[in-house]
Design brief:
This protein has 500 residues and is α+β, with helices and mostly antiparallel strands. It has 15 helices and eight strands. It is a multi-pass membrane protein.
């Protein structure tokens, strides 16, 4: 019910007073004015509360299955370079590993695998009929939508410096929640191995085949090089030629020294031979007749002494003969040539023989000197030829060694990767399921929270509607508001009679 105010007019009313001023209210006025709008507020409150309650009662109870994983550093996170050793053995920290595993757990591909393994109708029984009647394109879209729905119901939790990953999945059916979460764990163990180990990676095999092909081509070029240049073993042949060169040169120097020695000796022998006569007296007889006659005279004197005195004439005569003969012997007048024999001089013959031997040795040494000179030249030419071929040989050898080492290394890496894939395919030692999902016995519903929110929203909306209605009414609604607004005292109030 609206009321009008009777006020006293001052003797001198202000001519410029603003009667259309905005109404001023006190807190007590709001209670009175809102009470006047109680029926409108009650209607708005009941309508909104009814709608919220209707929505709340349509909500179904949901069940949450939980599980957890223990994750630690595994071999798949250890960096193994494809080639070389740069940064070999580098590993991420625990938080990085946990984040990586969490991303794999929350990947859309893994959720789609779970849906396809369990069946779309099992995970989403409400849309089973629609999925069965859909065409392939519609099924693909429904699976994509289902993958997003599973992602919204799946919750993955991690904590810093903690190796545990906690997961929960919410569904209207407890058995389905258990199946979805356990299937997610099983598919996760398979999917992460295919993702991290990469079973289909044939890069090492292709690279090894490439190196083997290049090695075969290099081997062919290497063998052709050896056959073209008539070389069996380049290194061994070069080593043998180097040793042979040293030996031949040493022997050549020795022959040169021997030749000079023999030539010097030959020159000395020839000089001595020129001074030595070819013939010499072999032996010569000496004439002893004077000595014999002297001895005979002495014998005859002794015989005369037997018959004569020493002073006898015969004795003095023989003494004179003896004295004369002794004087002749002493002076050499009685010496004469005896028989003698001459022939080839033995010294000359020895010198001749030595000269002949030395001449033969000099000739032989000259021949040897020429032969060794030819050998040294041949060896040097062969070494020079090998030196010219050595760069090409070294290039081919280096290519063969490098390619052979690469083939060996990549073969080892391929076998190691294969062994690692096989071991990883059999088990995931660094991933342990701490707790598998079990069907929850109690479910949770949003009915009470929705009812509370609906009640609060209905009350707030009703209050807002009452305030808007109150503020939009014309005039001054209460005497106190009129007094504050007009700045005049209110002396009395009277009710307004409704029209009949």
């Amino acid at each position: 019910m609206s009321t009008s105010a009777w006020t006293s007019v001052p003797h001198d009313p202000p001519s410029r007073r603003d009667w259309a001023a905005r109404a001023r209210y006190a807190p007590t006025d709001f209670v009175t004015l809102l009470w006047r709008e109680r029926w409108l507020m009650l209607g708005v409150f009941l309508v909104i509360l009814f709608l919220g309650a209707a929505f709340a009662f349509t909500l179904k109870k949901s069940y949450t299955a939980s599980s957890s994983l223990f994750v630690r550093l595994g071999q798949e996170y250890v960096y193994e370079p494809r080639a070389g050793d740069a940064a070999r053995g580098a590993v991420p920290d625990v938080d990085q590993v946990i984040q990586s595993e969490s991303e794999i757990l929350g990947s859309g591909e893994l959720r789609e695998r779970v849906i396809r393994k369990l069946g779309f109708a099992t995970v989403f029984p409400d849309a089973a009929a629609k999925y069965a009647a859909a065409n392939p394109e519609q099924k693909r879209k429904m699976i994509a939508q289902g993958r997003d729905s599973v992602g919204r119901s799946l919750k993955i939790e991690t904590a810093p410096d903690n190796s545990i990953i906690r997961m929960s999945y919410q569904h209207q059916d407890p058995e389905t929640a258990e199946k979805v979460l356990n299937t997610l764990l099983e598919e996760y163990l398979i999917y992460r191995r295919s993702l991290l180990i990469n079973d289909d990676d044939k890069v090492l095999a292709r690279q090894r085949d490439n190196f083997e092909q290049r090695l075969a081509e290099t081997d062919t070029a290497y063998q052709a090089f050896l056959q073209t240049n008539d070389i069996g073993d380049f290194t061994a042949q070069k080593t043998a030629l180097t040793q042979l060169q040293a030996q031949v040169e040493a022997q050549k120097y020795a022959i040169d020294a021997q030749l000079q020695d023999r030539q010097g000796r030959l020159a000395a022998v020839q000089a001595e031979l020129s001074r030595t006569p070819a013939e010499a007296v072999l032996y010569r007889d000496q004439d002893m007749s004077a000595s014999t006659k002297l001895a005979q005279l002495k014998l005859d004197r002794e015989g005369l002494l037997a018959r004569y005195l020493p002073n006898a004439q015969p004795v003095r005569d023989i003494d004179a003969q003896i004295a004369q003969l002794e004087q002749g012997v002493a002076t050499g007048r009685t010496n004469g040539e005896g028989a003698r024999r001459s022939g080839p001089n033995p010294i000359w013959q020895t010198l001749q023989s030595t000269r002949n031997d030395l001449s033969a040795e000099v000739a032989a040494l000259r021949e040897s000197q020429g032969a060794y000179a030819v050998q040294v030249q041949e060896v040097n030419e062969r070494l020079l030829r090998l030196a010219q071929l050595e760069p090409q040989f070294n290039q081919l050898t280096r290519d063969r060694d490098v390619l052979s080492a690469n083939v060996r290394d990549f073969t080892v890496k391929e076998q190691q990767d294969e062994a690692q894939r096989q071991m990883s395919a059999e088990s995931s030692d660094n991933i342990r399921i701490v707790q598998r999902a079990v069907a929850p016995s109690e479910g949770k519903s949003l009915k009470k929270p929705v009812l509370v929110l609906a009640f609060l929203f209905a009350a707030f909306t009703a209050a807002c509607a009452g305030l808007v209605r109150m503020l939009l009414r014309p005039g001054l609604q209460t005497p106190a508001s009129a007094s504050r607004t007009l700045g005049l005292p209110v002396l009395a109030t009277a009710g307004v009679k409704r029209a009949a």
